[in-house]
């Protein structure tokens, strides 16, 4: 498999591998250090399986002290570190480097405290997203952000990527449900940000860390808000003769002032794959399927169902089914949440994209994607968070066919450029990683990127944490603001310098 351009390998690190492994074993004893080639293959890629690379060594710490000592050791010896959670990242954010320690946080897997009075949960970063809801559901609570990978993805990884989910339209992304963090900086210093209180004093470093993709520090504890389950929730399953009609219905629902608990859309290929996989009762004679969940008190939900039905009919809906029980509502969602593995059954490989657009641009973007599909000769199945315009086109290809992976990547790049062109952004929740790194220039100018790099440098001046990710130019912090010397003369030589 191909691997994107990454920072130049540090030969001095490779030459010291045996000594480095020995030093790390002294910090994390027992089975906490993995250095055998075959054993490390389980960690050579994340959810973006097109790229893979064996790490220098894998370290699985169990305590905050071990994380702190590993990072301090790597900082002192200028060894690169790639943090990793459950490895479900779809942007290559946890792709290892040949000369970097892969710091895997999966052993931090305990719920530390459930505080119903303050509606908060403290958990270690390796706890799965669904694990938090499971821990509090008997008391009628839940954790709102729910990525489709929630059964496997870790809450620490959710923080790193600012993950979303089908219910984030109304209840927000990870950043809107995060209260506090404990994290370790690259120097080994342990810091705490936020807490159970609703707001923090001073600069909002908590928001800065959320979505920072492992470039600024390693999360060792997370405090999140939990919510009481609504009195009632019902879902509508609405079919349309075209994706454009479904997209317009989404825009009209939001324009009417209705904020559903979740609003998801699938096109015909995704509908067929999900139905064959889950048997959710999806109609197969429609081009687009919209799932709209409405929650609140019974009277409010009943009223909103009527309004949404009328909006859907105005947009030419051909079928509308309303859940009559929680079990039926869960079945509606089961097909959507299983859409990614379902599509995997109809194609040898697929490339999952992630871009976000203004909702009103949905019809235009979907039409353009269909044109691009014809241009590249590759099928695409669309599954996305329609309510907030977060698209997840799945480009179907066969890696064994020469040139198909490259065409899939070009197709995906054109989709992301289209998102930016219509006023959107390169990512909604999967992050930039290596997948979108070289497209950052389509959204940000050099001044923008320099300013972001300065933030990185403030936390990691040696550029040791997750290098090669996010920033398109592979440069070190020392190159920022470098003074230009022309013919031996500094600019403005008459100005005194101290």
- Helix count equals 17
CATH architecture of the domain at 111-228: 2-Layer Sandwich
Task: Note poorly predicted spans.
Answer: none
CATH topology of the domain at 111-228: Uridine Diphospho-n-acetylenolpyruvylglucosamine Reductase, domain 3
Mean pLDDT, nearest integer?
A: 92
For the termini, the CA-CA separation is: 52 Å
Largest sheet composition: 7 strands, antiparallel
- What proportion of the residues form beta strands (DSSP E)? 15-25%
CA-based shape: globular
Strand order of the largest sheet: 15-12-14-13-18-20-16
Query: Which class of secondary structure composition applies to the elements?
Result: alpha+beta
Radius of gyration: 24 Å
Level-1 CATH class name of the domain at 111-228: Alpha Beta
Number of extended strands: 20
Helix content: 25-40%
Cofactor: FAD
Domain FAD-binding PCMH-type: 51-229
Protein name: FAD-binding protein
GO molecular function: FAD binding; oxidoreductase activity
Any overview of this molecule?
- Among the domains are: 111-228, Uridine Diphospho-n-acetylenolpyruvylglucosamine Reductase, domain 3, CATH 3.30.465.10; 232-341, Alpha-Beta Plaits (2-Layer Sandwich), CATH 3.30.70.3450; 343-428, 2-Layer Sandwich (Alpha-Beta Plaits), CATH 3.30.70.
- Helix 10 (243-255) packs across helix 12 and helix 10 packs antiparallel against helix 15.
- The chain has a seven-stranded antiparallel sheet with strand order 15-12-14-13-18-20-16, sandwiched between helices. Strands 5-6-10-8-9 form a five-stranded antiparallel sheet.
- The chain is an alpha+beta fold and 498 residues long.
- The protein is 33% helix and 19% strand.
- The model has no long low-confidence stretch (mean pLDDT 92).
- The termini are far apart.
- It contains 17 helices and 20 strands.
